[in-house]
Design a protein that fits this description.
mainly alpha, 2 strands, about 65% helix, 12 helices, two-stranded antiparallel sheet, single chain
């Protein structure tokens, strides 16, 4: 049975080989050490998330789809993905294994969406989703005033500013985060921001992803590591 050390070791060897620099040269050794550090950090994050989900590393690496997903995850590490992004990807892997729906093609979409987000974009997405959950029940409970609870961007924006994010950074991060497909802009009158720009809503894809990926937990855990 394939193990994590074998996958990580093969990944590092292949990565060094792809550079065209001999593995025994000074440059090759330096690149090899870099790739190994990145791969081992990513491995530790993934193992941590698997333990949290009560999944063994043997179970996670027991089929072709799982190996393809882990290699794609390690590639994100090699290409410089931050720990926070790797934490989100690891949560997606563990969550999909728990649901019995770990498919390489589907994970590729998550890897592309989550791997390139900046920390500010992740904070915006996380806060917007939390507000959407908090406001979801308010419309039906207050039908006469349901319109008041349609715009989740305004309270999200205020929450971000209260937490110390400059208003311009919050608006810019939300605009940039749209490329992930996890949130989208709305120009409906009820969604316009207090600054007069577009409002933002969570996409159905984010709602589905958040069934297994806890953005706020990832932010908390990587904040403690960073500090």
């Amino acid at each position: 049975m394939t193990t994590f050390p074998e996958i990580v070791g093969a990944f590092v060897s292949d990565a060094v080989g792809l550079t065209g620099i001999p593995g025994g040269s000074v440059a090759g050794l330096a690149i090899g050490r870099y790739f190994r550090r990145r791969a081992e950090a990513a491995r530790d994050i993934l193992l941590d998330e698997l333990r949290q989900a009560n999944i063994s590393d043997a179970q996670a690496a027991s089929e072709d789809n799982a190996i393809a997903v882990i290699v794609r995850y390690l590639r994100s590490a090699r290409e410089g993905a931050a720990r926070l992004n790797l934490r989100l990807l690891a949560k997606a892997i563990a969550g999909q294994i728990q649901l019995g729906r770990l498919v390489a093609d589907e994970f590729l979409q998550y890897a592309d969406a989550l791997g390139s987000l900046s920390r500010e974009e992740i904070v915006v997405i996380s806060t917007l989703y939390r507000m959407s959950v908090a406001f979801r029940h308010l419309g039906p409970e207050n039908p006469a005033d349901a319109h008041k609870f349609a715009n989740i961007w305004a309270p999200t924006w205020r929450e971000l500013i209260k937490a110390g994010m400059p208003a311009e950074i919050a608006a810019t991060a939300a605009a940039r985060a749209q490329r992930s497909g996890l949130i989208y802009a709305s120009t409906a009158p009820s969604d316009l921001s207090e600054a007069g720009g577009p409002g933002y809503r969570v996409s159905p894809w984010l709602v589905d992803l958040c069934k297994t990926v806890d953005f706020e937990d990832a932010l908390r855990r990587e904040k403690s590591v960073r500090e």
